[in-house]
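In this section we walk through a basic example: taking a raw amino acid sequence and producing a predicted 3D structure, encoded as discrete structure tokens. The instruction is simple. Fold the sequence below.
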Amino acid sequence: MGTHWNGPGNAPWALQTRVHRAVDCTGRWQGTVPADLPADTQALSLDHNTIRTLTNASLLQYPHLETLSLRENRLELIEPGAFLSSRDLRNLSLADNALGTNYAVTAAALGSLPALRKLDLSGNHLTEDMVAAMLRNLSSLESLSVARNLIMRLDSSVFEHLGQLQELNLEKNYIYDIEGGTFEGLLGLQRLNLAYNYIPCIVEFGLTQLKTLNASNNVLEWFLSAEGEAVFELETLDLSHNKLLFFPLLPRQSKLHTLLLRDNEVSFYRHLPNATALLDVTVQFLVTEGNTTNITTLSLWEEVSSSNLSSLSFLDMSQNQLWYLPAGFLGRMTSLSHLKLNQNCLETLHIQDREPLGELTDLDLSHNRLGDLQLGLGPLPSLRALNLSANRLRSVPPHTFAHTWITTVDLSHNPLQLCPQQASADGAEDPVCMDLRNIASLRRLDLAGCGLEVVPSRAFSGTPLTHLDLSNNQGALARGPQPLRAIALMLQVLSLRNTGLPPSGEDIDFSGFQNLLSLDLSDNSLTSFPESLSGLSLQTLDLRGNRLPSLPLHALQKQLGRCLSVLYLSQNPFDCCTLEWWDFLHQLRTVNVVDRGQVTCNSSSTLIGAERLPASILQRCRWKTVNMALLYLVLTLPACLTLLVALAVIFLTFKHKLLQLVKSQYRVSSPY
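The resulting token sequence is shown next.
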């Protein structure tokens, strides 16, 4: 069924009220309205209680009520005279109750509120007929929510008495059909929320006074505005999470600044059969209403290009099926500041000088199939952030960043190699490389997972980076961080996870990185702690997934230990008998070991949690740390004593023979 809209939207559910006397009785297990509250109460909250019935006498003693909230009770009935003493009530929330049970009686009670401006009937199991009955005498309403009910179809009888309504929330119902003229009488309607329903299409959209329309999370296959030159007040249109096949056919004249088309099936159809040019591509829409079927034939690109998109500043077309963008498509969006084209099928993108996007600051082209990116000379002078992650780019034209103020570039997960490459035999550099030198405005650069074979020593010269991610480029820094010397003093955040750093900390010199605040060295198979880190003022350090047997205690007692606040240590084979540094970290109390529960140590080839070592392990470690000289003395003393005793026995046994032998050897003649 087609959905026809004729006549002159929904944003956050909020209407502010000036409150002088407020009473909060939320969650008190009240079965009735308390009778002992101040008589001049103007705002009363009774949310999350167990009230089943609002009787005629429930509010008699509170004649000054302006705001009443009864959310999440067990309300089944509001007696007809319940609000007769509350003629000044302006804001009423009855959400998440069971008012569908006695809706006719409740409708009579609501009809006695001439000043009511805001009403919330969400989550009450109401059908469209019940809603129509309850709204019949509420012509003063400006804000209405009937979300999370059982509404399936809408026609003009549901809202025909609500001429003052400005915002309407119909999300999370079961709406599949909206008849023509449903909103015709809502001349002041500005915000309409139809999200999370089952609407198949919107055609002849003609709500010229609407400022915000949220039709996300439906099953829309197309969106067609009414023909004509009427000026629409529409500023925000959310059609995300639908099944749109075509770019929406928007009003020719509008004030649209935000268009959300995320997660649809939008594509352009240059390669359709029998289409010799894009302007030849037409589509026929069959719109059925009752016994009438209308066939509308449209030239797609002609209709898109005829819409005035000069005020559009935010366009999200991510998660669609875009293979390309038509020539001139972006050129009409002269105010565009944010463009999201990520998660599409783009293989090439050329932005020419004739379609300059002078206001564009944020461009997301990640998760496409881009192998060719061509930007004209200076079409993006205001660009600040460019996301090219997860494409097939081997390089980007050198002039891409030459005339911009770009500060953030994400090139992660592209098959890149960095310039300057090693010169060939004729002295020329390999032209297929990414030149990131001399980009004076660039501060943040992500090169994770690019398969970098090596980081050249002058790869970032002239580019004052403060944040650099080289993660998952195994072997790129096999010689250590020396290639980063040119930017060492500027770097504040550095990720070197899984970059093949030398295993010995003695071969890794970070002494020049004096302004570094965050460092990731995880998954590098380090066998010793880099001593050069002890003099840095790091606040965050990640050492997970290495082969460290311990951390040097003296390093934690220096500048590193005084500044460190966040530390990751798990997946290292720490020695259970050399955990003095672990105890020192406990004493510091300023270092948060985020993965403390996963830190283990090795004792006799058994992994044990370092947080609570068993007494037997501690005892074993004590024996290992006993003075080895004393141990050797104890072991050798018995042998020495045995040897002395043996020598003494031998001497005593052969004493006389030995003396005679000595005398015979040294006998001399007498002087007489």
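Looking at the output, two observations stand out. Residues 505-625 form a domain with the Leucine-rich repeat, LRR (right-handed beta-alpha superhelix) fold (CATH 3.80.10.10). The first strand starts at residue 22 and ends at 24. In the next section we compare this with other chains.
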